[in-house]
Structures are given as structure tokens and as C-alpha cells.
């Protein structure tokens, strides 16, 4: 089963956007992610619809944040991307004909819903500024080692 990397890749791009005062082109962002600019535009269009970012056309144009990193939560980004699957565990698609299967599905559904709710609550508490702080700490530790 193929995993969905859009949340990770989008957060990566948004942190870079937070560090650049000028708009970043789809081509520049695509190079950062080792992908095609069309993939970047398609993904970022979801964020534009939720008014997290905007694109400026023409020479010197590109994508830019509409809010500071401290005002964008992981949950907002996650929801803008269409709420990709958090956990890849899923029940059988067939309607349960067996009562044991029905009980298993119900028990797992309850646990998975609980886990999803916990993840979403944590996503709501975490802003992109928190990730940016972690980036700065990593950058500082790298500079200390390199220096």
C-alpha cells in the first residue's frame, strides 16, 4: 500500500516559505521536494482554497504565506489536504456477515477513532512555528558541530 507523503512534503514547503520574504515559484519548491512543479501546484492549490497561502503570477511571482507560521496549525494544513489517512489500518470492505467479524470491526473502529481524535487534537495544538523552532535548534546544533 502506498503511503501519503503530502502532509510531510507540504509542511516542508511551508517552513521554507516562512523563511523567504519573496514568493517561491512552483519550480523552486519542486526542486526542494524532488518532484514536478505540477504536483506542487496541485497540492498548494488546496492550501490556497483554505486561505493559508496565495500565488502571485508573473515575473517575480510565486507562492507565499498569508499568515505567519505561528498562526497556522498542523490541523489546518491536514484538513486543507483533504484529511489524508492517519492510520492505514482499515476493516474489510464487505458487510460483516459473521458476528465475530462485526465485533472485531466495531472494537477496532472505536480504537482507531480514538487514536484519530488524539492525533487531530495534537495537530490543532502544534503550529508551524513549533516546527520552525525545531528546525532552528537543529541548525544551531549543526553549526556547532561544523564550526
TrEMBL record:
PROSITE patterns: HTH_RRF2_2 (PS51197). GO terms for molecular function: DNA-binding transcription factor activity. This is Transcriptional regulator. Pfam families: Rrf2. InterPro entries: Tscrpt_reg_Rrf2, WH-like_DNA-bd_sf, WH_DNA-bd_sf. GO terms for cellular component: cytosol. Gene3D superfamilies: Winged helix-like DNA-binding domain superfamily/Winged helix DNA-binding domain. It comes from bacterium (Candidatus Blackallbacteria) CG17_big_fil_post_rev_8_21_14_2_50_48_46.
